[in-house]
Write a structure and sequence with these properties.
By secondary structure, the chain is α+β, with helices and mostly antiparallel strands. The protein contains two helices and nine strands, in the order αββββαβββββ. The two termini are 30 Å apart. Pfam families: SOUL.
């Protein structure tokens, strides 16, 4: 099922072709010279998002990522490979009281700058294009 997206990604796996999402570094936490995490602010932008709710958190992330990869690798209204942006963001959801994590996660792909004004539509109806306001992200 993933053979075509993986082949497409492999053909396009040149690190120079990966677009880093522009951000402002807010905080950087290190321990003994190793980076633990960065707190970053990303500007307002359009993202392709999919919310998954499998029994295991890791399954949700993996399946969401695979669906996004299909969108990136030609399963979109343009029929073209869209290019990789890094990082792919995972949002962990909490219950209403914010006292526990739920099984739901959102996996999101930042649309490259050239696609921000008119992003290709996903062929998978589970993927939606959202415009996010400026967002704080913790990265490791």
């Amino acid at each position: 099922d993933m053979a075509e997206p993986i082949q497409q990604l492999t053909r396009n796996n040149n690190p120079q072709e990966r677009q880093t999402i522009p951000f402002t570094l807010i905080q950087r936490k290190e321990k003994l010279g190793d980076l633990l995490y960065e707190k970053r602010q990303y500007g307002k932008a359009k993202w392709a998002c999919i919310k998954m709710e499998e029994k295991q958190y890791e399954q949700s992330i993996c399946l969401g990522f695979m669906k996004l990869m299909r969108y990136i690798c030609e399963q979109n209204s343009s029929g073209l490979y869209l290019g990789i942006t890094v990082p792919i963001v995972t949002i962990v959801h909490t219950n209403e009281a914010q006292s526990a994590m739920t099984q739901a996660v959102t996996v999101a792909y930042y649309l490259p700058e050239v696609l921000q004004d008119e992003p290709p539509h996903p062929l998978d109806s589970d993927i939606i294009i959202e415009e996010w306001p400026a967002t704080i992200v913790y990265s490791r």
